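To whoever is covering the structure queue this week,

Two jobs came back overnight. Logging them here so there's a record in the thread.

Job A:
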Amino acid sequence: MEKVRAKKNLGQHFLRDLDAARRIVELLSCHEGYTKVLEIGPGMGVLTQYLLQHPEYETSVVELDRESVAYLQVHYPALSPRIHSADFLHLKLDELLGGSPFAIVGNFPYNISSQILFKVLDYKDLVPEVVGMFQKEVAVRIASKPGNKDYGILSVLLQAFYDIEYSFSLPPEAFDPPPKVNSGVIRLKRNGVTDLGCDESKFKAVVKMGFNQRRKTLRNALRALQIADHPLLNKRAEQLGVADFIELTQLVGSGIIPNVEITEE
């Protein structure tokens, strides 16, 4: 009981559906070039046991909870050298696995799942694939296309660099303790884009500013920027695809770009 309570405080819910765990691992499409896999938040090793059934993967795990780390060391001794007792959000991913590309997989703590993906974006050239469990509404948002009310900041920023597929859903009963929401599994695969054709920091600012006032036209939402007039400014952020946001970013002047926080996501 103390174990479950501790993990719940970390935003973690143990996956108890073994078939779902197997399906998550099977979604990984690692091949020669990135055979390393990093699991975030393995807990008691429900996903880990299936990862270790693939000798072609060099599996490592990152776990913050010390009791879980101790459990993994006892039950998966061969994994011990690759168990990192740390907070994923504070890790330098370019140093963690020797600078080699690696896939990320996990039943992610829901309270930091968006932060995990923003960190993935920071290291996108090292992370060709992500397969993860999220709160369903977050998973749907990430995979949503323009014109959908669920489409938002994460949708655009991630879809600029990844092809995203919503794979399957799970009810609360698949977890212990059960969350109060449904869950969804998505797969992100790097799309090969290395250059957006615009300044990436400006692109992020335009996307964030547009969605922070998503009920307004972009002409109003982006009024703080030096941006040339364009028909796209008459639309709202949720109506624009990645290419549209790139086109708008190319029109932004050379003035100072504000550091934009997310206020609606």
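Job B:
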Amino acid sequence: MAEKEPEVVAEAPSPAKKSKAGLIIIVAALTVGLGMGAFVAGPALAKKIVQKPDSATVINEAKAEAEKVSKDSPVLLLDNLVLNPAGSGGGRFLLVSVGVQVADPTANEEMKKREIEARDAVLRVFGSKTVEELSDVSRREGFKKEVKAILDSLLGPKVVRGVFFPQFVIQ
């Protein structure tokens, strides 16, 4: 029996050495793999995430922009305007809210009195646009100028100081 015990003891250390070496290789491979993933896949994922802000982020940014407006120039919100774009055949729609910054509180009261006319004027501007035009984000500044011009013709020159789109959804 004494002979069998030394054989068992002699064989036991060699598998332990192999398992330590294998464990070190596995840990090193995982570390290299994670490092490569962080440098290769990380920037690609971050780019996709940054390019597609969700609607909540866009709305929050619009609200932050509207809060920068001074109290001397009130903003009236023409909320939830829904229409079918030109050429869509009723299959598509635009949901837009328009913030109108006016010159002073007196102009704001006038704007409130004529809100129905203002809503109709804004609907006319957007109703003449196609889905392709409305989808082009680079045209939004032009839409703001058109809305400002039509509201100035309704309320008087230089009454409208700014136009904001806190909500602009094409479906």
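Note for Job B: Residues 4-50 form one domain.

Please reply-all if you pick these up so we don't duplicate work.
Q.
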